[in-house]
Amino acid sequence: MTLELSTQPMPEAAGAVLRLALPMTIQHAAELRGLLVDAFEAGAGGVDLAGVDQCDSAGVQLLLSAQRSLAARGTALQVFNAGGAVLDILGRYGLLPSAEPLQGKA
Amino acid sequence: MNSSNNDDGDILAAACAGFIEEARDNLVQFEQALLSMESDPQDAEAVNTAFRAAHTIKGGAGLFGYDAVVGFTHEVESLMEAMRSGDVDVTEAVMGVLLRARDQMGRLVDEIGAPQADAELARAGAELSGQLRALRAAGPSAPDGVAPAALADAVPQQAATWHISLRMGGDALRNGLDPASFIRYLDTLGTVRIRTCASRVPELAMLDAESCHLGFEIRLATASDRAGIEQVFEFLRDDCDLAVIEPGAASEQYEALLARRALDEGSRQEMLALWQELAGPHAPPFIERRAERVERREASTSRRAGDDLRFIRVRADKLDQLIDLIGELVIASSGAQLVAKLEESPRFAEAALRIHDLVQSARDGALGLRMVPIGDIFSRFQRVVRDVCKQLDKEVELVITGGETELDKSMVETISDPLMHLVRNSLDHGIEGPQARLAAGKPAQGRLSLNAYHESGSVVIEVTDDGRGLDKARILAKAIEQGLVPPDAGLDDDAIHQLIFAPGFSTAAALSNLSGRGVGMDVVKRNIESLRGQIRIASQPGRGTTMLIRLPLTLAIIDGFLTSVGDVGYVLPLDLVSECIELPRDVAGHDPGQVTGYCDLRGEVLPYLDVGRFFKQSNGTSQRRSMVVVKDGATRVGLVVDRLLGEHQTVIKPLGRVFQDIRGLSGSTILGSGDVALILDVPALLQLAVDRLTTLQKDGAPGRCTP
């Protein structure tokens, strides 16, 4: 399983997108979940992570859960503006589409 | 609204108290781990233990928002992490700073709840933080220093590919354990390929965002062995389900893993897909895609390691309440037995007996809950010995035995200070410096041993040193000078030793060049006596001193032996009773005023005390009186009573304030009939009997009763 995501700015054509501006960490996980649930209820199909500068396993789990929720409705989760912190942990977890051999760093 | 706020406040206060207690436990572990690192720098397990302790303290403090603790502990943890990965060596400088950091953490924890932060403490913290950071930056002292712990003993091998399957436990994130950091650490072992298994992550609507539902399938190419790999996940042990499959394993092992991980066809296919991805297009698939279903294992068989070591933290007052209740149950059960006897109903009696037996087991179980091994406080002294030795330039080896001996938790707390004093005393005054020891023909390194064991219903704790022993002449001279004893007292060795416990007897002036620590030996003795315990000294000049502390096993319920004089019941601790005999003819009491004397027990001299006369009861001339021979350590004394009523489970109740000063009684208890019986304080009675006889002899009156 991988996450389709983009480091590019959000295209004009994108549908309703939830802009997250909290660290995606365990401290904010419950709050973020609430935001995501509300946004998807309101028809959003993607998240904009421009304001996210931290991400831990709880954050990854939220993205995976969001992806699953949208997949159940027949749409794919769109992720925009994923920054270094998000890419780093997704890469480490082998969740990026280009996840080819992750070399261990000494 | 208000009351709910108060409730929240109470809950928070209780949780906070729990954190502080836990933090102190963790600090003790931290310190012990540091000390074992100091004695064996290669001890990877000790580094891990210290790291885990620091991590736990930081996590707990973070939950409660104690930023000072978090900030400082973070620095400690970072240095420990660097040590774990071999970037920083265990050197004397590092250990010194870490031990000071441990004290700083202790002070920060102590400061919690103080109205305002201590500026001096913060300043010390900042300085230590700087030192910790500097050590971390300095890196290993030699480039070829200690290899990463996990690789230390590994014979260089061809890197082989291991398979690791990890399923996180729900509480991992809440416990501050992020799998990312462990996977990052795995990188130090070799090359990692990883896929995340998200099949257990529910949809948002069902998601508890703070629970961890992640799983990982990992291929690790490394020269490390299984122990090395499992060690990486050691801190996660309680919070994950880990499976490690060695290189070249048969496909049955993968089948078994698959059966354990995938409970339905969907997740089975997903796992297989992940594994296929991991294996890569060129590598041969390490598992054949088989169509047939593998027999599924019960989910419960994937037991998490460490389950058998789990503990529950229970508030002490809840336990006390339970023990109180059991105490009432014991009394009620005795009452039921009594009624059964009066009713003369054998069936009732049998039922009552059965209940009595069960209550007895429940009592032992409940009291056992309060017991903790004494080793916990013994090991605290490692640090004391280390520090005092450095300070006094002495070499002392601390030998601990019997650490598994169990003791009531409340006693452990009370006994810790007196023990500390005794240990310091031995180090200060007992054990000589290396030069003096060599001159006396002893090894330069002194030896201090702490030992504990159970003996007839008591716990005995010994503090033994091989130092110079007590200087009797000096103690006696000092005592005479201070007017504690008359110059012509003619004391024996034991009595002279006991003098150092006299209030006002200044050991500091008489025996030591090191200033006292605010607690005199009289306070030590008082503390021990407040636990119904005793302290004795055995000392040989030039050979050493042993302080022997004897404490009752429990403060709540004991097995008693019920006797009576007139209509007053007296209970003796059953463990102290050695035998019951008919009153010897020569004691049969001619003189009603005679309280104590000697009699002949099978050719041996036995001092005795008439309990009824001692407590000045008017009657006490029953037809057939008996003597209960009690032993306390080496001393034996006969206690004369009217009747023997047999074994009795005794719930110890304190004596009322009015009776508190009566010597020879340690408490009261309630009998099945509802009557009150008195519990005899046997050691005190023995002392009183012996004192009385000694005085009688001095006055020239015959202590012995003429036949």
Q: What would you note in describing this structure?
A:
The complex is a heterodimer of chains A (106) and B (707). Chain A contains three helices and three strands, in the order E-H-E-H-E-H. Chain A has 106 residues and is mainly α. In chain A, strands 1-2-3 form a three-stranded parallel β-sheet, covered by helices on one side. The C terminus of chain A is likely disordered. By secondary structure, chain B is an alpha+beta fold. Helix content of chain B is 43%, strand content 21%. Chain B contains 21 helices and 21 strands. Chain B has a five-stranded mixed β-sheet with strand order 6-8-9-11-10. A five-stranded mixed β-sheet of chain B has the order 19-12-13-21-20. In chain B, strands 14-17-18-16-15 form a five-stranded mixed β-sheet. The radius of gyration of chain B is 33 Å and the shape is globular. Chain B starts with a helix and ends in a 9-residue tail after the last helix. The C terminus of chain B is likely disordered. At the A-B interface, helix 1 and helix 2 of A face helix 6 and strand 2 of B.
Write a brief structural summary:
The complex is a heterodimer of chains A (106) and B (707). Chain A has 106 residues and is mainly α.
